[in-house]
Design goal:
Helices cover 52% and strands 12% of the residues. The longest helix is centred in the middle third of the chain and has 26 residues, at 284-309. It has an eight-stranded mixed sheet, with helices on both faces. Strands 1-2-3-4-5-7-10 form a seven-stranded mixed sheet, sandwiched between helices. A three-stranded mixed sheet has the order 6-8-9. It has three domains: 3-282, 2-enoyl-CoA Hydratase, Chain A, domain 1; 310-495, NAD(P)-binding Rossmann-like Domain (Rossmann fold, 3-Layer(aba) Sandwich), CATH 3.40.50.720; 501-647 and 680-710, Orthogonal Bundle (N-(1-d-carboxylethyl)-l-norvaline Dehydrogenase, domain 2), CATH 1.10.1040.50. By secondary structure, the protein is α/β, with parallel strands linked by helices. Helix 5 (150-158) crosses helix 6, helix 13 (284-309) packs across helix 28 and helix 29 packs across helix 30. The protein is globular. The two termini are 43 Å apart. Strand 11 (317-320), helix 14 (323-335) and strand 12 form a beta-alpha-beta unit.
Length: 716
């Protein structure tokens, strides 16, 4: 044994081939400080050994190396810039020293080689991957860029165009594509991986493969003439500007770094990479996106733990109420291999539900994501029925009928009479109290909310709502079912609107008050989309939700939380609803919807909407961006804080993920609590106080005021 550490070992075979094996304690290999230090020690040991002809780098696990240890980032990035720069420079130099070993090296890659794992492979002279491998640099998803030499080695290996596409999108590559682009040298079956790697590196050691010139090209300036460089980098800048926009600095920094480093050798280029990495590490976007990653891990971890504790196995689902929502839920279940009965009271609704599933599948076929076999299997797993008897064997029944407590109550009662004693009954209500609905059942302990978001196949979140009588067994089984259906479950406690809609409707109320104070809804949408970063501004979102749905939900919220959510007098939403301007569903709302000359969907601000609002609003006036954002976001933030303080949601991290997955909260802002913390709790309190005169939705809780005074954090 040449070297033995906790995370990696180096041994030497009789023919002089060293094997550096990453096999860290735990389920995966990742670059934490300990592993980086051990890599350096192992490199020194190999360099001074004298008897090594070549080296193979491989994993002792089912994946190569999944990347850096992100859990170390938060505390590290809070250090002064010089310290962060020192850390990333020292770490990247460990990879340099490995690259400079006096013999050829090869990476034998299985499973994931991402981020630092990919950079480890790039530091080798050759790379062979097996058919399970995925290789890539996904740092952009954390608001960062590669920091261990990725921006230097990859462009010199596959060209700057390909390298920038890898890095700015963060998409990983399977073996054949990586081979086609020149990032790897061979793709082999898993059982042949080690033999292929040993054979190739032995050939290099014997002089049959020119490893020195390969290494030299990675350490030299990029081979681009002036015209090629100008074309390459201007194209990349335009691509990034169009795809990422102004809110995500990481892809812009990558292009700038590769461009400025094009004429430099490895050491000069790495210096620019280190400096760019540190600048990004200090951005709000990186803090937010790293926060999202960690929150996502928390949510997934809780979900897996609850699913593991489930005592009931779910083999069949049922959906009550077809139509677009019911069809979407049925599709989601069937597409993930869980057979589902779709029950309704009329054939037309069943046809609509089936056509919704078929539409989603047809779109998948057009995009090449679904083949005929998958389409047939999915549709065959959906059984439409007009009879309650069809659901008698279902393990989980999801009621998705009209959002009316009386109708839902009748359906739930009838369902309980048909299904097995241990079947779980859920309601896909978006606002109605689960405790209220549970009163219709003789066994409320097996009942909970299971709130899907529209469109079901696209929105990752399912809110699981625990009623006062719901057992943990019920919750665990529904969490397991949600995961089986490919969705992210977040468990919340019962209240009007639960979590997502409870925080959304004060946002809508803030919008309505602003419009009544003379704001132009188009201008508000523009600010909330372009400046704040929402995928849709509030007027456009209301058109998508539907004015009938929004007005009804606002009434439910007003009844449930009258002290803050009483309906707004002359609410533009109600005005449009009463004028039968329902939004996208009938092509007229705040906007008129149609098609342009090329047949593409179009929307234009509706003169009719302005005319309906004008008699009830102040004279038109312009508001600055900061005021528009404050007047919409303070109510949302305040209600989210109340949900956390009241125990509706268990943590700030889960609230952030719920809004991200359920509403499309801008990822570069990290979620509602990350947004408040980025602003600073003291500044948030001061801003809310400035608008407190506008009503209860702007007035903060004593809890947040105390937290600000004590300098506390929601993420401590």
């Amino acid at each position: 044994m040449i070297y033995e550490g906790k995370s990696l070992t180096v041994s030497l075979s009789d023919d002089g081939i060293a094997e550096l094996v990453f096999d860290a304690p735990g389920s995966v290999n990742k670059f934490d400080r300990q592993t980086v230090a051990e890599l350096d020690e192992a490199t020194v040991a190999m360099a001074s050994h004298g008897g090594i002809k070549a080296a193979v780098v491989r994993s002792g696990k089912s994946a190569f190396i999944v990347g850096a240890d992100i859990t170390e980032f938060t505390a590290m990035f809070e250090q002064p810039e010089e310290e962060v720069l020192g850390w990333v420079a020292n770490t990247s130099q460990v990879f340099d020293r490995f690259e400079d070993l006096p013999f050829p090296t090869i990476a034998a890659v299985n499973g994931f080689a991402l981020g630092g794992g990919c950079e480890m492979a790039l530091a080798c002279d050759f790379r062979v991957v097996d058919t399970t491998a995925s290789i890539g640099l996904p740092e952009v998803k954390l608001g960062l860029m590669p920091g261990f030499g990725g921006t230097v080695r990859l462009p010199r290996l596959i060209g700057s165009d390909n390298a920038l596409e890898w890095m700015t999108t963060g998409k990983d590559r399977k073996g054949p594509q990586a081979l086609n682009e020149g990032a790897v040298d061979a793709v082999v079956a898993p059982e042949k991986l080690l033999d292929a790697a040993v054979s190739m590196v032995a050939d290099a050691a014997a002089g049959k493969l020119d490893w020195q010139s390969r290494r030299a090209s990675k350490k030299a300036p990029l081979q681009l003439n002036q015209n090629e460089a100008m074309m390459s980098f201007s194209t990349a800048q335009a691509f990034v500007a169009a795809k990422a926009g102004k809110h995500y600095p990481a892809p812009h920094m990558m292009v700038e770094t590769v461009k400025n480093a094009a004429g430099l050798d490895r050491d000069g280029a790495l210096k620019l990479e280190n400096e760019g990495f540190v600048k990004l590490a200090k951005t709000d976007a990186a803090t937010a996106q790293i926060g999202i990653f960690l929150a996502d891990q928390l949510v997934k971890g809780k979900g897996k733990k609850m699913a593991k504790a489930a005592t009931k196995e779910v083999k069949q689902n049922a959906v009550l109420g077809a139509g677009i929502m019911g069809g979407g839920i049925a599709y989601q279940s069937a597409s993930k291999g869980v057979p589902v009965v779709m029950k309704d009271i009329n054939t037309a609704a069943l046809d609509l539900g089936l056509s919704e599933a078929a539409k989603i599948l047809n779109k998948g076929m057009e995009l090449g994501k679904v083949d005929a076999k998958k389409m047939a299997a999915t549709l065959n797993a959906i059984t439409p029925s007009l009879e309650y008897s069809a659901i008698k064997d279902a393990d989980v029944i999801i009621e998705a009928v009209v959002e009316n407590p009386k109708v839902k109550g009748i359906v739930l009662k009838e369902t309980e009479e048909v299904v097995a004693d241990d079947a779980i009954i859920c309601s896909n209500t978006s606002t109605i109290s689960i405790n209220q609905l549970a009163k219709n059942l003789s066994k409320p302990e097996r009942f909970c909310g299971m709130h899907f978001f529209n469109p079901v196949h696209r929105m990752p979140l399912v809110e699981i709502i625990r009623g006062e009588n719901t057992t943990e067994d019920t919750i665990n089984a529904v969490v397991a079912t949600t995961l089986k259906m490919g969705k992210t479950p977040i468990v919340v406690n019962d209240c009007p609107g639960f979590l997502v809609n409870r925080v959304l409707f004060p946002y809508f109320a803030g919008f309505s008050k602003l419009v009544l104070d003379g704001a132009d809804f188009v201008a508000v949408d523009k600010v909330m989309e372009k400046d704040f970063g929402w995928p849709m501004g509030p007027a456009y979102l209301l058109d998508v939700v539907g004015m009938d749905t929004a007005d009804h939900a606002a009434s439910v919220m007003a009844e449930g939380i009258p002290e803050r959510m009483a309906k707004v007098d002359n609410d533009p939403v109600t005005l449009l609803y009463e004028a039968s301007r329902l939004g996208q569903k009938n092509k007229k709302g705040f906007y008129n919807f149609g098609t342009d000359k090329r047949g593409r969907p179009s929307k234009e601000a509706a003169d009719e909407a302005y005319a309906l609002i004008k008699p009830h609003s102040a004279d038109g006036q312009s508001f600055d961006k900061e005021e528009i954002i404050a007047r919409l976001m303070i109510p949302m933030a305040n209600e989210a804080i109340r949900c956390l303080e009241e125990g509706i949601v268990a943590s700030a991290a889960e609230a952030d993920m719920a809004l991200l997955y359920g509403l499309g909260f801008p990822p570069f802002r990290g979620g509602i609590f990350r947004y408040i913390e980025t602003m600073g709790l003291d500044k948030f309190v001061a801003l809310a106080d400035k608008y407190a005169h506008l009503g209860p939705i702007y007035q903060i809780t004593d809890g947040v005021r105390q937290m600000a005074a004590d300098g506390k954090s929601y993420f401590a």
